[in-house]
Design a protein that fits this description.
Blueprint: H1 6-11, E1 31-38, E2 46-48, E3 56-58, H2 60-72, E4 77-83, H3 90-113, E5 117-121, H4 142-158, E6 162-165, H5 172-180, E7 185-188, H6 217-230, E8 234-237, H7 243-252, H8 256-270, H9 276-287, H10 289-296, E9 300-304, H11 307-320, H12 322-340, E10 345-348, H13 351-355
Parallel strand pairs: 1-3, 1-4, 1-10, 4-5, 5-6, 6-7, 7-8, 8-9, 9-10
Antiparallel strand pairs: 2-3
Helix pairs in contact: 2-3, 3-4, 4-5, 6-7, 6-9, 7-12, 8-9, 11-12
Length: about 350
């Protein structure tokens, strides 16, 4: 049967499509390609990921090759998740530090020559077998904070453009910002929650007891607010599909009246459960909303595609075809860009493949 045009259907009163073009578009310069930079394998080696089809953990030479491709596609930059053995105590980190500086500095310089922004995700160094993050065999937070501060110092030394904080430890942004100053941009997973898709193929890591409970949007907004107060430059929604979180956060923090209303309600519900550190940050914002609003107006929002979502798209491509999976990915990206507003960006393992005309699968 013939498929009729929009104009024809509009004339008949049978189409709700008013606008004939998209309000927003997908552009490579809005993306950061996520890579796993593996310090445990040879520089020319790559290891496949059995849970994410088509995705590899890469040695240094392979990372550089991929960077050249990313630059040729016009993608803005790369997010490098460093793969290394986790440390059980802070003193163990000293054996890793010099190698991190050497390897990250080298790759960062190469990325700059390619015209790419380079940000670093230092996740693996503190990821324990339980799925929890930090130095957990002591009864104090000090070793974990020392680790965060020292990692941040490495980021400053290597000259990377940005560092990611993970949305797990209350003081992580405060400590990171104190270490990096203004020389490195801070990307915070402020609203990070216990999504079941965060770790493809690893069910044991899906409930860390450190991240926000899914759907607890008030906590997500509050942590975004505290992280901005403590120095975040970019609030990164994780998982990307939490479009409502991005929109609700932007609304709640958009004016003095909105800030006061949100904090009054939040304190009424949670004041007795907040730590001294958390309470001080919230009261600082409540008492100085204009100063906070100035900080808020200088930051941008973005979104991060978690591995489980990438895995599901690969399965979709296998069973339904690459084209339909690409359509679904594009819809997810469009929604994320719309929800996160002007200047927004997306970090995704699959953007290189998408802009090459395929999908990671």
């Amino acid at each position: 049967m013939e498929k009729y045009s929009v104009d024809h259907l509009r004339r008949l009163g049978l189409s709700r499509r008013v606008s004939q073009s998209r309000e927003i578009s997908i552009k490579p310069q809005n993306f950061l390609q996520a890579f796993d930079f593996n310090l445990l394998i040879g520089k020319k080696d790559r290891e496949g990921n059995k849970h994410i089809p088509g995705f590899y953990s890469l040695g240094k030479s392979c990372i550089k090759d991929e960077m050249e491709t990313v630059a040729e596609l016009g993608i803005k930059g790369v997010s490098l998740r460093i793969i290394d053995n986790a440390v059980g105590k802070f003193s163990d980190w000293k054996r890793h530090r010099s190698k991190w500086i050497e390897e990250i500095e080298d790759v960062n310089e190469f990325g700059k020559k390619c015209g790419l922004q380079v940000i670093v995700d230092p996740f693996s160094i503190g990821l324990q077998d339980s799925g929890q993050w930090g130095i957990l065999n002591t009864m104090e937070e000090s070793e974990t904070l020392d680790l965060i501060e020292n990692i941040s110092e490495v980021m400053r030394i290597t000259g990377v453009d940005g560092v990611i904080t993970l949305g797990r430890v209350p003081k992580e942004v405060f400590v990171t910002k104190r270490s990096i100053g203004e020389s490195v941009k801070l990307y915070s997973f402020s609203n990070n929650n216990e999504t079941s898709t965060a770790y493809a193929g690893n069910i044991s890591k899906t409930n860390t007891m450190q991240k926000i409970i899914p759907s607890n949007i008030k906590d997500m907004i509050a942590w975004s607010m505290m992280d901005i107060h403590h120095g975040s430059d970019f609030i990164v929604t994780k998982p990307l599909e939490n479009y409502h979180v991005s929109e609700a956060t932007r609304k709640a923090l958009s004016s003095v009246d909105e800030i006061k209303e949100f904090l009054s309600d939040y304190l009424l519900l949670n004041e007795n459960y907040l730590s001294k550190f958390e309470l001080e940050a919230i009261k600082d914002v409540k008492n100085n909303p204009n100063l906070f609003l100035k900080k808020y107006n200088s930051i941008s929002f973005g979104a991060y595609m978690v591995s489980g979502s990438t895995q599901m798209l690969a399965i979709y491509a296998k069973h339904e075809g690459v084209n339909i999976a690409r359509c679904r990915l594009e819809e997810m990206w469009l929604n994320a860009i719309l929800a996160n507003g002007d200047g927004s960006f997306i970090i995704d393992r699959g953007c290189k493949d998408f802009f090459s005309g395929s999908i990671l699968h």
